[in-house]
Amino acid sequence: MVKKDFISISDHDARTINHLIRQAYNLKAQARAGKKHELLQGESLAMIFDKPSTRTRVSFDVAMYELGGHAINITAGECGLGTRESVPDVARTLSRFCDAIMVRTFGHDIALGLAEHATVPVINGLTDLLHPCQAMADALTMYEITGDLKGVRLTYIGDANNVTNSLINLADKTGLDITVCAPKGYTPDEKILGGQFTLISDPVAAVKKADFIYTDVWASMGQEKLAAQKNKAFKDYQVNSQLLKKAPKNVKIMHCLPAHRGLEITDEVIDHPEKSIVFEQAENRLHAQKAILVYLLK
Q1: Where is the Aspartate/ornithine carbamoyltransferase carbamoyl-P binding domain (predicted)?
Q2: Strands across the sheet with 212-215, in order?
Q3: Residues lower than pLDDT 50 in the chain
């Protein structure tokens, strides 16, 4: 049997990605109804964290617990991935102990190296290039509202980062219509992604027909030295109540968190009782990752 990994959404066909969205939807419904789904009884997941985490760590830990398995947290200081010990050696060792590996790290090459040398499935919990687990949670969140992602209009406003890249990959597999709104110099690299998206520099024009408006921090983790430069470049790209007035009445607001309130998004928008679905996104990390784990381990 060929080993399956979840490093990028683009590595899987449209049928698989859409199946995972529906599976996540069903697992969430079961959890809400109080029905146990211990599909991974006795399975273990090694979780490597080179970057700090709230949602990734807790959601994967709870996911394994509710699926009947066990998660093991490994910090950067304990592992020293690529420094204290080589990536291949870590991959080979953890493969002897655990049934799957999840990594949240900086360089995408580290996730690829783990996948190459591990004999168990490897999950990309985040790299500087991609954040596929977040995009799958976003897919579930939009699917719950629309019932079908094909033709749904998503506008992403802000720095083209790992989340943007994975959303573009998601659009390729689901028919999602994605618009990226960013200033020159901060747009996605079409050659790397190979994805289809509309690029607009004017936020007002970008949100005019949007079903969903998505934003993220302007300076990602590890880019703290660029914060002042990016804050200046993106000062006209804030998602605020004035921008929402230019969008359709039923538009929904998304953010992958953590948020820098007052920068990329304002309090009244992220906390809007009707338009904000930010914390549904956060919850859906749990259910989307359950679907990924079951897909890789069953």
Answers
A1: 4-144
A2: 198-200, 177-181, 153-157, 212-215, 252-255
A3: none
